[in-house]
Amino acid sequence: MTITSTESLELRAQLAAGVAEVFTDLESGWRDRVIDTDEGFDPLLHAQAVGLGWAGVPVPEEFGGLGLGLAEAMAVIEQLGRVLAPSPLVDALVVGTALGRVGVEPAAQEVLGRLSGEAAVVAVAGLTAHRGEPVTATGIEIGSDGIVSGSARCVAFAGSADLLVAVGADQVAVVDAAAEGVAVTAQSGLDHTRRLGEVIFTRAHGRILGGPDLADELRMIALLSSAVECAAAARSCLETTVEHLKTREQFGRALGTFQALRHRAADLYLTAAEARATADYAVGVASGEVTPRAGQEALGDELAVLAPLAKVVCTDALMTVAADCLQLHGGSGFTFEYPIHHYLKRGKAEQHRLGTNSAWRAYFGQRLGLNTR
Questions:
Q1: What's the CA gap between 16 and 187, in Å, rounded?
Q2: 202-260: pLDDT as tens digits
Q3: What is the CATH number of the domain that holds 96?
Q4: Do 138 and 165 fall into the same domain?
Q5: Are residues 187 and 255 in the same domain?
Q6: What is the mean pLDDT of the chain?
Q7: Chosen domain end from 159, 188, 210
Q8: One domain for residues 292 and 363
Q9: Residue-level pLDDT at 364
Q10: Does the chain have fewer CB atoms within 10 Å around its N or its C terminus?
């Protein structure tokens, strides 16, 4: 195992603290106010985040970024997950990290510059398989000339995007959202903190960003970001509930003094801790800070399992924690004014995004040589 330097850990802690401070200073109820707007996020807050350098964390310095790596980008994503921030910043970090790791084509230089310097909203299309298709399937075809055709559903913040990153089977292209041949239709989603849209490309002119290596990298980093967000959300949801148990009284006693509720909260703590450990290990392997058990030569093969495994474990953990926390809040947990329902909806939505968890389990079984039919 590689030991991460103290300076790197301190830098990540500073990044995380800076992100957390911005959201702590927002007024109460800001999330519910933002999700009711046309965009589904706060453009001023997004511009502030870009101005503070968050979007440029993984972007190489020559393109206006901070030149940091995957682990630092995940430190920002973790804080966004804690507060379930309605923000397109996650896709910007996923794209910036992937481009920085794989290599920069000429067209990618413009994308990186706009991500870190112009507060451009980027949406990634083609990472979610259609029902009944393999988890790595995509409904988008990209020609060698950059012509993009096909469709992608459940694309986060597609309606507000300036740039659409289209992920095909073996190529990735960027398309201007306002280009001819691009149509975006709003979709209703369970998770109100992530505004969804269906993107249809009809021979839209795009610019090639990379080949199959970039497509695989985008899928892997998107899965890791889902795991990190959900692990952080599970902890935040539980912390909110524990505070409720400490202060809410019944029969003249705080709810937290009842043994049955204390044991239930302890079980949820273990679930959240397991999710965090899984996400941390997956990010550590992907960033090169943790050596796979089978050795460095098995890195690619291990990540092919580890990234989706982390997604499955962490999304299931969030769903378990949020469902129980809603019950622990009693009747108030079912009201819209309390934030618990947002965590529950995020958990359920993430179980189906980027390939359903049941489809990923079938994939794991196939790799183990099991008959999953």
A1: 32
A2: 999 999 998 888 998 999 999 999 999 999 999 999 999 988 888 886 787 777 777 78
A3: 1.10.540.10
A4: yes
A5: no
A6: 86
A7: 210
A8: yes
A9: 84
A10: C
Statement: the pTM of the whole predicted model exceeds 0.85? yes
Domains of the chain: total: 3
Residue 114: pLDDT band with limits 50, 70, 90? confident
Q: What's the CA gap between 122 and 164, in Å, rounded?
A: 6
One-letter amino acid of 114: R
Under 8 Å between Cβ of 79 and 232: yes
C-beta of residue 150 within 8 angstroms of C-beta of residue 141: yes
CA atoms within 13 A on the CB side of 142: 25
Backbone angles phi, psi at 74, to 5 degrees: -70, -25
5, burial (CB in 10 Å: exposed 0-12, middle 13-18, buried 19+): exposed
Who contacts 97 (Cβ-Cβ below 8 Å, separation ≥6)? 58, 69, 70, 73, 221
Q: Nearest to residue 220, comparing CAs of 289, 349, 345, 127?
A: 127
Domain of residue 100, residue span: 6-120
106 and 129 within one domain: no
At 328, the pLDDT band (50, 70, 90 cuts) reads confident
233 shares a domain with 284: yes
Supply the CATH number for residue 294's domain. 1.20.140.10
Enter the tokens of residue 341. Answer: 């329902």
Say if 1 falls within a structural domain: no
Check whether residue 224 and residue 360 sit in a common domain.
yes
